[in-house]
Amino acid sequence: RDLTDISLLECFIHLRYVDLSENKLQDLSPLSSLTHLLWLKVDGNLLTSARMQELPYLQIISFAHNHIKDMEGITHPRLANLSLKGNKIQTALGLSQALFSLHDLELRGNKLESTAGFNLPKLKNLYLAQNAIRSLEGLEALEQLTTLHLRDNQLETLDGFCSSMKCLQYLNLRNNGISNFQEVAKLQVLPMLQALVLLDNPCSDEPNYRLEVLILLPHLERLDKESVEQDERAEANEIRQKRQEEEK
């Protein structure tokens, strides 16, 4: 509707669900009086900041496809699901550690160069595809993370994963720059990893690629789009044992 002014909403203090997508909003301050708000969608506006006055019951926000450049000023204590997809965010530093309830964070299609700043111990799903991430930093705080999407980034090394990420089950690294299996071996620190996507990395063109990954990561249940077959697993175990004996 090409709205630029939502000051009228200040009167409707009991609103729970508000969708203001596809307008021309630059200012959300009138929403600060909506203290009962549970759900807010403001996709496709002209917002340059996600900063808002703290709303005590707000659980879901989508700021997708705006012009937001940082993650400061998001402090809603019950926020569980936050989408900032398709903005211009360059760093997660400034993300409030007071987001105690945040489970899902969507940041696809931004300009992140690092994973530093995601100090969110309750986070379960983190979507970072289509950024410019070159380095993995600060992941040790993500102890409850189960899903991590890093597709279409610029990773050449896999330093940064650590054993404190004891719940991570699904990792998507498709279309990065992982060129050798020594980097894949660094994923051995992830005790619960079950599904891994490595398609469109240089290492996926190596001969016996699937076998080499399974030798390094014997607990995988799915590699790329296919489940790990029993005979594949047996062959990988056999080669691993032979190599271990040769090293002795």
From TrEMBL:
Gene3D superfamilies, A to Z: Ribonuclease Inhibitor
Q: Which keywords label this protein?
A: Cell projection, Cilium, Coiled coil, Cytoplasm, Cytoskeleton, Flagellum, Leucine-rich repeat, Repeat
Q: What is its main location?
A: cytoplasm
Q: Which SMART domains match?
A: LRR_SD22, LRR_TYP
Q: Which Gene Ontology BP annotations are present?
A: flagellated sperm motility; radial spoke assembly
At the top level, the lineage of the source is: Eukaryota
Keyword Repeat on this protein? yes
Which cellular compartments is it found in? Cytoplasm, Cytoskeleton, Flagellum axoneme
Task: Identify the stretch(es) annotated as Disordered.
Answer: 226-248
Q: Which GO terms describe its cellular component?
A: 9+2 motile cilium; cytoplasm
Physiological role: Essential for sperm motility and male fertility. Plays an important role in the proper assembly of the third radial spoke (RS3) head and the bridge structure between RS2 and RS3 in the sperm flagella.
Annotated protein name in UniProt: Leucine-rich repeat-containing protein 23
Question: Which species is this record about?
Answer: Anseranas semipalmata
Q: Which gene encodes it?
A: Lrrc23
